[in-house]
Q: What sequence folds into this?
């Protein structure tokens, strides 16, 4: 995870086969330090799901990250511009099974 981020025009790098999110964008959403994200991903403590838009959402992506009791979602436009972000925090309760998919 790397790339460029500014509060006004956050971008996600959109490649031919992958998307790259800056750790500084994701870290505050999950309540972790940016430097900790690569190891949390390797340990599968953070899991993710990438959904590609179809029809009227063609070219857009919905990136979802799961960590402990949090689900962080980033909506990305075709150019890589972040169109929206959201976080659901279930606190000490585990995420409902329907929200936690074990995809990476």
A:
């Amino acid at each position: 995870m790397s790339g460029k981020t500014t509060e006004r025009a956050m971008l996600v790098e959109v490649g031919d086969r992958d998307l790259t999110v800056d750790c500084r964008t994701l870290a505050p959403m999950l309540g972790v330090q940016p430097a900790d994200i690569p190891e949390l991903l390797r340990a599968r403590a953070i899991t993710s799901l990438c959904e590609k838009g179809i029809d009227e959402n063609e070219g857009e992506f919905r990136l979802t990250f799961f960590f402990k009791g949090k689900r962080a979602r980033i909506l990305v436009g075709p150019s890589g511009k972040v169109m929206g972000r959201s976080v659901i925090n279930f606190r000490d309760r585990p995420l409902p099974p329907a929200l936690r998919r074990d995809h990476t």
The chain has two helices and six strands. Residues 2-8 have pLDDT under 50 and may be disordered.
